[in-house]
Amino acid sequence: MARLRRKLVRPQLQSRGNVAARMSAAFVDYLQSECHLAANTVAAYRRDLVRFEKWLGSREICSLKVSDLADYVAWLHRQDLAPATIARGVVSLKIFFRYLQLEGILQDNVVELLGSQKIWRRIPSVVAPHMIDDLMTAPWSEDPYWRRDRALLELLYATGCRASEVSNLRLDDVHLDEGYCKCEGKGSKQRIAPLARKAASTVRSYLEAERPKLTKKNPRDAAYLFLSRRGKRLSRIAIWELVKKYAARAGIDPEVSPHSLRHSFATHLLAGGADLRHVQEMMGHASIATTQIYTHVDQSRLKKVHTQFHPRA
């Protein structure tokens, strides 16, 4: 399959036009069709390669040296990008060059000589439990689809799911009587997320009172759980906007996002005494090191551990 692909790609890359752009397009197609990466991941790689093409200009990829690529990293820093974006840009470039090497377009992969970008891991923002209550009741009966919005907020906080995961939830993924839902996370990995009684109750209210009206507007998306006012699948961006809207109404920090509710889910579980491994499983983290950051967020838990175990506490 790989040999066949090399025969198909090379003539395309040697034709007229922007060679670097065609290499990037072939690489993105490879990520989608052969690596089966998530759409958001592919989109991130595509954005990184667009930046690289902008910097590359009239240079030829095959003639680049390590010093040139170091200049590219410096150029990324001058674009006022976040440290995490710059670090991902370097990783994207390394994977892109490995692909070109695999296809026989490059002999040597000079990007491997670039060092990894070190970034500080920021402490995630967390919403206090009493403010969570205010947020959950922020949608009022005067709002056009307040039942849907309350169900959305409750489900985000109850499951710790990402906005993209909730956007892609289907009706048959949600089991209200059993109290769980099945979601698909990064890398198309599936996991079971427990669904609290309060969340199940608000979702059921939305399903019975509002959703039937929305499905009539666009039957093609009727399989999805959360629908927009036009009956289409509620997008990740729309979910972010709704959370921002109700956070502002509840008087919470304007920086609050669906990911803040995910952070709050993990932090509040640990504060209640949940085992770190269980939280890791519910969050869908591949490594427990990712989950451990929440032990630094919960100051009350740290104080309790210190009081219990330090000889002079």
From TrEMBL:
The keyword Metal-binding does not apply. Residues 18-101 form the Core-binding (CB) domain. The active site is at residues 162, 186, 259, 262, 285, 294. One of its GO terms (molecular function) is DNA binding. Residues 122-307 form the Tyr recombinase domain. It is found in: Cytoplasm. Keywords: Cell cycle, Cell division, Chromosome partition, Cytoplasm, DNA integration, DNA recombination, DNA-binding. One of its GO terms (cellular component) is cytoplasm. Its main location: cytoplasm. The keyword Endoplasmic reticulum does not apply. CDD domains: INT_XerDC_C. One of its GO terms (biological process) is cell division. Belongs to the 'phage' integrase family. XerC subfamily. Belongs to the 'phage' integrase family. XerD subfamily. Forms a cyclic heterotetrameric complex composed of two molecules of XerC and two molecules of XerD. Site-specific tyrosine recombinase, which acts by catalyzing the cutting and rejoining of the recombining DNA molecules. The XerC-XerD complex is essential to convert dimers of the bacterial chromosome into monomers to permit their segregation at cell division. It also contributes to the segregational stability of plasmids. This is Tyrosine recombinase XerC. It comes from Blastopirellula retiformator. The lineage of its organism: Bacteria, Pseudomonadati, Planctomycetota, Planctomycetia, Pirellulales. The gene is xerD_2.
